[in-house]
Amino acid sequence: MRLILAIFLAVVTLAAQEPSAQPAQEAPSPAPATEQWLTGNIEFGNRWVSDVRGNAEAYRSVVNLGEGPKLFGLDLTLTDPSRRLFDSAVIRANSWGGDPYNTASVDVRRERSYNLSFDYRNIAYFNSLPSFANPAVDRGIFLSQRSFDIQRRMIDTELELMPGSRIIPYVAFSRDWGAGSGVTSFVTDGNEFAVANDLRDRTNNFRGGVRVELNRFHATFEQGGTNFKDHQRLFHSPGPHYGNRTVPLLGRQTLLSTLEQAYRVEGDSVYTKGLVTTNPASWVNLYGQFLYSRPDSDVSYSQDNSGKFVSFDPPLSSLRLFDSQMVLLTSESKQPHTSGSFGAELRLHRRIRVTEAVMTDRFHTTGSALLQETLAAGTVSATSSGVPPGLEKLIFNYSRQEVNVLADVLPRLTLRGGHRYVWGDAQVRAPQLSQTGTVENGELKMHVGLAGFVFRAAQKLTVSADFEGGSADRNYFRTSLQDYKKLSARANYQVLNSLNMGARFSLLDNQNPAQNIRNDFLSRDNSITVLWTPAGGKRVSLLGDYSRSTLRSDLLAVVPSTLQSELSTYAERAHTGTALLEINLPDVQKASPKLSLGGSFFKSSGSRPTEYYQPIGRFSVPFHRKVRGFFEWRWYRLFESFYQYEGFRTHQFVGGLQLAL
Amino acid sequence: MSGGPAWAFLAVLLCAPAMPAVQAAGEQKQEQKPAKQAATYVGSETCQACHEDIYKAFQRNPHHAVEKDARRKWEGKACESCHGPGSAHAESTEKKDIVNPAGLAASEADRGCLGCHLNQPTHVGRVFGGHGKNQVSCVSCHSIHGTAPESLVARKASTVNKKCAECHTPVWAEFQRPHKHRLPEGAMSCVDCHNPHGSFLPRSMQTVSANEPGCFKCHGDKRGPFTYEHAPVRFEGCTACHQPHGSANPRMLNRHEVRLTCLECHANLPLPTLAGSNGLGGVPPSFHDLRSPRYRNCTICHVKVHGSHVNRALLR
After folding, report:
1. What ipTM does the predicted assembly reach?
2. B118, B233, B245, best to mutate vs chain A, most A CBs in 10 Å
3. Which of chain B's residues have a Cβ under 8 Å away from the Cβ of A442?
4. Is the pLDDT assigned to residue B159 strictly greater than 80?
5. A181 vs B107, more confident
């Protein structure tokens, strides 16, 4: 990888030097001699990471930056002066050379001929936080039983033909795939065993369509499809594994000797999309869309495990204790999903606009499974097979209608008022212990009042605010919005030519006073932003923001061990700041060395007090008109007072060059 | 549809036929304004005389297509297609005699842009989006005169994020938390999840495969459909349990420990049977002894918490 990177950098650097080696007047193109065919910049260098103090797994889960040569950024624009093949091609790449997030993109355009875009991402998903899903943490064992180390890659490519014309066909392909390993648990009655897990999934998406763009009307028709594969494997090599249970169950010490479990999900979906916008008259714009998808999944599952187990619900009562188990299952599920929306924007008067929006979203999932299970103890075995009782079903119908009136009551003041009505119904399978039947139905109805304003006192000051307040007499879940108020306000003030200040405030207050719920949720965010650029930022510029957020949520729950009702409380009070101070130092060879200082901090108290710091310092100095050298220092520190074993801190140093082409 | 909203909708529809007359009256009033309204179109070459640098740069701007596009009916008048007739300004050279879209109220500025851009798929969710309602104009995010091929709007992830963070400061603050989507690193951008032009989903969420929530584009293994669904995932989306921007809690959960997230719904208390209440209250109880560390981490046993193809209790 490093060799490829080095070769790539050398080639790009040489390519960039070509124009100077080739006199401009000899260029066969009719373009002006001054027009460069290649512009952009490249940033590359090396990163050194000091030893990670603290928990390395947490470091990898949160930061995960490694050492070695890197291509930090590449941003190139190629222009074809003859415009024969393309007008311009933009190539971008970021964080290559073993970093956890690599991206690359290419956009090629030729006016009225085509637009071609390609995007690639490679993201490392690593998560092994010792505080998460770890029943052994009290004993000082730092092994999360739900961890993974996956490499996820994504490709998106789209070709659009004849952009700017009346009929624009397009085709696109996306692929998203991940592969890796992890730790998860294999669950049996009364015990669970952390075992190795192989994960491999892939989604392909193909779509094509045509856009018809006329002066007063547009329609897009798209047909697409996906196919999906998700293969998971759990395994345990021969050997006793005692799991999380430390005491015998029904007089037996349960253990797992071998395990081979395979989960193979394959699915596909076809979908159709139709979009329309039109302005049949100068005072009205209409919008509409129809969306339909029909994903389905087919699953084959097999499980073969041996050891010493207990069954709470055995096929034969004699096999309450058993030594091996084999499970075969096939299942399938479908989810037809239809959505539609209609919108209108009416300019009733020069100063009054009305927007009307209606949408509906409906899907229902049906699923069925066929199971065969064999338990064996010594020479005795028992098999059960059949369809688990009942057809699995989930139905969801949701609709929303909203009307807003916007009035420019003064040249600088716009007021908005409106109303939203949300309604729907749902049906799910009732839980096994339900005493109300096998199916549960729910309904949703909510009225929401909307208001807002925008005030522009000259171009220097803008103030705006939005409010919505809703009330419902019923809901699906205990935490859903019930009687709530949402408020957000923003202000921006250009104090001086060199000083801009902004302030934001937002609030969400949701209450459900019902006797068995008593949900009381309140979150508040306040933030200020400062942009200071004295003398146009020639010497110094400062961009900084500070946010203060508080969140408190109280909810009633019965604690199973005491059977007492208690208020479950979650609280968080956080300070967050980001800043970037840039200082242009006195000129050296007509170019200015630059010092940048900044970074971010996060400090919270409450249910999970956390401190996370990411300061950064960067010094760059010009070596040549088009070459700058830079040196960067970063520091990462995570500290959690209740989970101190999860903290880490590390210094990182980067040295490199930035070439401007 | 019932009650108030139906009436509001009906009223809008009933008023609609009368609107051309009202609109015409409004326009007539506007036309009655004297003198400066009489400006005429002078062509882009007249603009070039004073704004040479902008004119030259504009040759490489995608909007330059307007200058040559007979279909749009602005041939040779690309500058005035946005800035309005320029004769008065050409004579006086005064700022006040020419339209500057950046200085207009958002609705007015947008009207200019939407004159050409309304009939494109990008805008189909416009009336649902927050930007349209909160009066954020096109020019807040799009620069019109840029010369680089992609200068009309930021496309590089880090630049997109910077642009959004200018207004959404508290959201950007959430990305400074330890567990987050990788936006500060430039691996993702805000528009990967949100459609700034508006979408029929709440919070202007992007959709994939026609109408599925955008989260499933990357998290395909959570898409399903599952034989045994976990209803809140379907009804309330990922945000029922996760803080999508960033969190101090592992796996970006809403609560600091897994069991507390689960207990919010699995609280061993049925929804009250209020008159007319039809909530989905029969969630399975969490009858385990939460004093034992084994049961404090629900997802150790309920491993397929997003939905299972094999087990109704989401155990495998």
Report:
1. 0.90
2. B118
3. 278-280
4. yes
5. A181
How does pLDDT run across A224-238, given as a tens digit for each residue? Answer: 999 999 999 999 999
Of B169, B254, B312, which has the smallest distance from its Cβ to A504's Cβ?
Answer: B169
Structure tokens at A456: 């522009």
Question: CB–CB of A654/A45 below 8 Å?
Answer: yes
| Strand extents, DSSP E, A539-563 | 540-559
Residue B45 has a CB neighbour count (10 Å cut-off) of 11
**Over residues B179-188, mean pLDDT:** 92
Identify which has the larger pLDDT, A262 or A249: A262
Mutate to test the interface with A, among B10, B131, B219, B300 (most CBs of A within 10 A): B300
Mean pLDDT of chain A: 89
Residues of B in contact with A273 (CB under 8 A): 210
Cβ contact (<8 Å) for A287 and B297?
Answer: no
Min Cα distance A46 → chain B (Å) is 17
Taking only residues 12 to 71 of chain A, the set having a beta carbon closer than 8 angstroms to any beta carbon of chain B reads 61-62
A188 vs B276, higher pLDDT: A188
Q: Quickly count: other Cβ atoms within 10 Å of residue A65's Cβ.
A: 20
User: Is residue A271 predicted with pLDDT exceeding 70?
Assistant: yes
Closest CA to A166 of A223, A219, A88, A87: A219
Residue given tokens 């019923």 in the structure block: A474
Q: Please, which residues have CB within 8 angstroms of residue B251's CB and are 6 or more apart in sequence?
A: A127, A129, A132, B179, B242
Q: Residue A330's pLDDT band (boundaries 50, 70, 90)?
A: very high
Q: What is the pLDDT of residue A126?
A: 95
Rounded to the nearest angstrom, the minimum Cα separation between A52 and chain B is 16
How many Cα neighbours within 13 Å face the side chain of A80?
13
Selected for mutation to probe chain A from B164, B221, B254 (highest A CB count within 10 Å) is: B221
Whether the link from the prior residue into B225 is cis, omega within 30° of 0, is yes
pLDDT in tens, A182-230: 999 999 999 999 999 999 999 999 999 999 999 899 999 999 999 999 9
pLDDT in tens, A149-165: 999 999 999 999 998 88
Instruction: Decide if A440 contacts B280 (C-beta within 8 A).
Output: yes
Residues of chain B positioned with their CB less than 8 A from the CB of A334: 225
Does any CB of chain B come closer than 8 Å to the CB of residue A348?
A: yes
Enumerate residues 206 to 225 of chain A having a beta carbon within 8 A of any beta carbon in chain B.
211, 213-218, 220, 222, 224
- The answer, yes or no, to whether residue A511 has pLDDT greater than 60, is yes
Residue B148: pLDDT band with limits 50, 70, 90: low
Q: How far apart are CA A654 and CA A66, in angstroms?
A: 11
DSSP β-ladder status, A167-188 and A191-213: antiparallel
Record: contact A401-B27, CB cut-off 8 A: no
Q: Are A340 and B201 in contact (CB under 8 A)?
A: no
The per-residue pLDDT for B276 is 46
What pLDDT, on the 0 to 100 scale, is given for residue B4? 45
CA distance A337 to B224: 12
Q: Once rounded to an integer, what is the mean pLDDT over residues A427-437?
A: 72
- What tokens were used for A197? 């897990």
Taken in order B118, B122, B125, B126, is the CA torsion positive or negative? negative
Prediction pTM value: 0.89
Task: Give one DSSP letter per residue of B55-107, joined into a string.
Answer: HHHHTTSGGGHHHH-GGGT-TT-HHHHHH---HHHHHH--GGGS--GGGS-HH
Residues in chain A closer than 8 A to B248 (CB atoms): 572, 574, 602, 604, 608, 610, 612, 640
Question: Are A369 and B310 inside 8 Å of each other by CB?
Answer: yes
Q: Is A226 left (phi over 0), alpha (psi -120 to 50) or beta?
A: beta
